[in-house]
Amino acid sequence: MAECVRTLGGRPTRVAERGATPKVPAWRLKALRALRAFFTPLMPDDYLELINPLWSTQELRGRIERIERETADAVTVLIKPGWEWEGHRPGQYLRVGFEVDGKHHWRAYSITSEPGRPDGLIGITPKLRETGAVSPYVVRHAKPGTVVRLGGVEGSFVLPDEVPERLLFVSAGSGITPIMSMLRSLDRDGGLRDVIHLHSARTEDDIIFGSQLQQLDARHDGYRLEKRLTRRHGRLAPADLEALCPDWRERESFVCGPAELLDALTLHWKQEGGDPDALHMERFQPIVGSGDGEHGDGGTIRFLKSDVGGESDGTTPILVAGEQAGASLPFGCRMGICHTCVGQLCSGRIRDLRSGVVHGSEGEMVRTCVNAPEGAIEIAL
Amino acid sequence: MSVTESPLARLSTDQIEEIGREFAAIHDEVFSELGDRDRRYIVSMIEMHRRLVVLSRLVLLFARAKPAWVAGTATLSLAKILENMEIGHNVMHGQWDWMNDPRINSSTWDWDSASTPAAWKHSHNYVHHTYTNIRGKDKDLGYEIMRIDPHQKWNPIYLFQPFYNVLLAAFFEWGVAFHDLDMEALRTRQKSRQQLTRELKGMAAKARSQIVKDYVAFPLLSGAAAAGAAVLRRRGRTEALRAGRDAFRATLAADFTANVIRNVWAYMIIFCGHFPDQTYTFSEEEVEDETRGGFYVRQLLGAANIEGSALFHVISGNLGYQVEHHLYPDMPSTRYGEIAPRVKAICEKYELPYNTGPLFKQLATVQRTILRLALPGGSPRPKPGPYRGEPTADAAPDPHDLAAAASV
Asked: So what's the pLDDT on residue B81?
């Protein structure tokens, strides 16, 4: 399964590119504001950052404190946030900004640590994807001390405030990541009373958090881990549920894994009389790989600020498509040199009409005059 | 050998297309290589600027002492030059947007100058860089107040241009900010009154914060520090007040001087970019239906380089590579020097000029033109021939230069 990255569609107001606004004590903000006259057009922050980059009050940053290997191709990165951590609910995810070979990339990762760790660290557990831009760096090259940008905590795949008596977790591959935060939180708060966890991975060695899950199983009578090694036994099918967890209908269920698994279970719930409200799912979407076709068929464009939709046949630049749809967009040279037309790509990928190269990642500033959509895109213009 | 006819006229359509492809290939190659090395450079420049600012402001707390005043003013001037030229100008060109860094980005950057980023990006990145040296369209050709090209119609007001030329050099940032407002667009109704009001408000806010910083906040800080120190040393009230007043004045003078030094430097570099004798200007007819290749050739002919050391190139924002900058305005400035040999090779291959010269030579030709064209008449200066490889001839005096100077 590909690296777990969620597309962040349908968020017109939030600009993905920057980090979250940190929770800074009011007196400090007041002091910084009072000193602004000395630093304009920069902020006092811009100078304080020379001493410690975590002191920025304009965006939340964190420092990598430790990197722990989980499997041959997955590591847990423990990050110390620069300011007081706003907190998260087990199961939520976080956008993290890494700098790889000079370029800045945002990726969303499930938080694998439980809320309120005494050391104040938060953990994410990326899995290697050879063709990715970020995961090879994080898994192989990132070092403690590296400063990363932190975005907001998001996601509605969370444990309810009042923990249900009986729980069923179904996870596959790196789908374990949000569930690990839930399990750790339940473990700490005595919530592992009647929990069945079905987890599938290719081999024993591929199980992320394998030994920790094993320990939970050993320590708690109320937690039962059912492992499924797909290389040997094939993928988990909904029909297996009857044998592994016959009372699934009476449990609050949390599922995270590839789309096929989620679709199969949704159908199963519907057909076999499960309560759809008791089925919670996290949909992971793999990144669309680049170069998967030279066709350039264009796509639809959502202009979020103008609130209009446009369409390109693959040769029409985003700018022209927007103008045809009635949006009033910034433009200058119309040939890719002056950067007057840049807008922030919020989702989707684009094709550079000059080189034919498909590129673009969420949050990137792109020139609308020389790029066409490659599939559906959203742009903050 | 000297020619005044534009080389654009003798190139065939196919040749122009080929030139376009060759120039585009350099761009693509550099952009595919950009990485950590480039990022480290701009980040270190930004950090150096901030360190220089802190250092200069600390030293200027003691501005009453002559050596501190000189050292502080020099450091602050250097910081302002670095910030405007190598950092501000280039970041706002989008040269570092490829890093996808939310802070070092053309859409969010602001600079220590009177121009608001939005207005400057429009008048510079769009109008000037798109219509470079097209008479009537490139509003930087004389900035609408000077006669810098003999094709411009003479007007008695130009008799004063040698004088306001000097004023413009000293207060260049304000000239640029006013120029960005583009009053001509208002006259020709390309710009609405509301838009002008909005721009004026933005400009006023920017001007206020710049003036408060340099002429109120820091002088007051120095004044308070000096007066406070006098009180601590149990000096009398009059003496403390005098110390405060002197420190205030000395810091104010230092800030003013630093701004003027930065302005004169920016003026020199920028005027040498397009106004030396070597450059061509173009009529709108000449560039009708211009292709990408034609665009590159026009940029090549319309810009002139300044020769200098590595340090010179840093403090001129690499605009000593004006030719390379105009070919690729969005390319990180550090790469200009690296690609210069390849640009020269294209010039040699297609028998095109590669305009360059030492700073004072370039500046002298610009000033001569400003003086000459204050009066009616004048004709285009003779142009250098095609670039013919690394010259040994460059060392020898150029006879055309002397002849041309005599014929003015």
From this structure: 98
